[in-house]
């Protein structure tokens, strides 16, 4: 694939993925509430979910999302419910400051599921790959190698963006040392997570 096409794709993805949305809101809320050490399963699921949408677009499987629309609606609402549950846990978490971090961490499997549900159930991501991407790249001429190049480009852009958000959230968390500040952080994180759930639920 031509370098120009990859750069255009990277630029469009940078704008789309870099703008705060439900996925970024959930990620930032998680890091502020519990730190960054256990967030990798959530990130990995987000990246894999976007790779799934990209693959569906490249291989002409947009009809799957339409044919099995109900399945994607179920994924969306399961993701919303899980985010609401996480928001409730954050809101009610004890404001105890420990070097090891905030309350007991969720299992990697639960975090992975949350990240996948947020990504697959986010219409913003779906519309980028299934509606906007075909206007940027001639998907009909994309070979298997071209798909690999697009996937690698996507991974580099998303890793850069998401790690920057994680770093910013982690730095903000380090400033929160008192119990009052931690309680405030829990409440802000809970509200942000709930907002992410509401944003996903409100989008058709």
TrEMBL record:
Domain of life of the organism encoding this protein: Bacteria
Membrane topology annotation: Multi-pass membrane protein
Chaperone in keyword set: no
Alphabetical list of Pfam families matching this protein: LysE
Keywords noted in UniProt: Cell membrane, Membrane, Transmembrane, Transmembrane helix
InterPro entries per record: LeuE-type
Transmembrane annotation, as ranges: 41-63, 70-91, 111-132, 144-172, 184-202
Localization (cell): Cell membrane
Entry-linked PANTHER family: ARGININE EXPORTER PROTEIN ARGO, ARGININE EXPORTER PROTEIN ARGO-RELATED
Protein's name according to its UniProt entry: LysE family translocator
Source species: Mesorhizobium marinum
């Amino acid at each position: 694939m031509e370098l120009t096409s990859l750069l255009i794709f990277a630029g469009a993805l940078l704008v789309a993925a870099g703008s705060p949305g439900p996925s970024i809101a959930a990620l930032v809320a998680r890091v502020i509430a519990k730190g960054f050490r256990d967030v990798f399963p959530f990130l990995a699921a987000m990246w894999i979910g976007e790779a799934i949408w990209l693959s569906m677009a490249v291989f002409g499987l947009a009809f799957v999302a339409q044919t099995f629309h109900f399945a994607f609606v179920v994924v969306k609402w399961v993701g919303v419910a899980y985010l609401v549950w996480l928001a409730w846990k954050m809101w009610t978490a004890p404001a105890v400051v420990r070097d090891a971090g905030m309350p007991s961490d969720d299992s990697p499997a639960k975090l992975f599921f949350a990240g996948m549900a947020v990504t697959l159930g986010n219409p913003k991501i779906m519309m980028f790959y299934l509606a906007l991407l075909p206007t940027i790249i001639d998907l009909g001429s994309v070979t298997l190698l071209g798909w690999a190049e697009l996937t690698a480009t996507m991974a580099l852009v998303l890793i850069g963006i998401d790690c920057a958000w994680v770093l910013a959230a982690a730095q903000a968390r380090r400033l929160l040392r008192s119990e009052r500040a931690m309680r405030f952080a829990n409440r802000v994180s809970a509200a942000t997570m709930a907002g992410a759930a509401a944003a996903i639920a409100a989008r058709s």
